Amino acid sequence: MYAPLIKRKFGMNKKDKIQYLIISHLMEYGSIKLNLPDNMQVEIGITQEGKHGRHIENNYCWIEASRDNKSVEIDSFNLGLNFRNNDGIVLINDVEDDVSVSVI
Q1: Has residue 100 got a pLDDT over 50?
Q2: Residue 17 CB: number of other CB atoms within 10 A?
Q3: What average pLDDT does the structure give for the chain?
Q4: Tell me, what's the pLDDT at 95?
Q5: What phi-psi label fits residue 53: left (phi over 0), alpha (psi between -120 and 50 degrees) or beta?
Q6: The whole model's pTM is what?
Q7: d(Cα 45, Cα 57) in Å, to the nearest integer?
Q8: In this structure, which long-range contacts are made by residues 76-80, counting pairs with CB atoms below 8 Å and at least 24 apart in sequence?
Q9: For residue 61, how many C-alpha atoms fall within 13 Å in the half-sphere facing its CB?
Q10: Closest CA to 25 of 36, 33, 15
């Protein structure tokens, strides 16, 4: 599946090396959390819940970006936004996808 990356391992530029390392880590451990500037965290995973707990799924990916009490999650099926609302302000945009289903 990732054979082209493995074959080119020694002739890669920095971007390719980083991608190779992240994909290799995901294939072995299932997820990785990156601490970014300004207290931002990004977690990437290829694990999915099953009958027997979490397992690595090659055709599935999820990403969570978070900072303070706010986070955004996206996976193959869903998109989520979580935050603690201390100001009493909630902004919702209604959007319709290509099959006219309301997406909030």
Answers
A1: no
A2: 14
A3: 79
A4: 53
A5: left
A6: 0.67
A7: 9
A8: 79/103
A9: 9
A10: 33
Residue 1 is predicted with a pLDDT of 47
State yes or no: pLDDT of 7 exceeds 80.
no
Residues 3/28, Cβ–Cβ less than 8 Å: no
Mean pLDDT of 37-50: 92
Q: Looking at the DSSP assignment, which residues form a beta bridge with residue 94? A: none
Domains of the chain by residue range:
3-103
* SS3 assignment, position 46: coil
Average pLDDT over residues 73-94: 70
Cα 57 to chain centroid, rounded: 14
Q: Is 62 helix (H, G, I), strand (E, B) or coil?
A: strand
DSSP annotation of 87 reads S
Query: At which residue do the structure tokens 């995901």 appear?
Result: 26
22 vs 99: CA distance, rounded Å: 34
Mean local confidence (pLDDT), 81-93: 63
Pairing of the two strands 62-67 and 70-75:
antiparallel
CA atoms in the 13 A half-sphere facing the CB of 99: 1
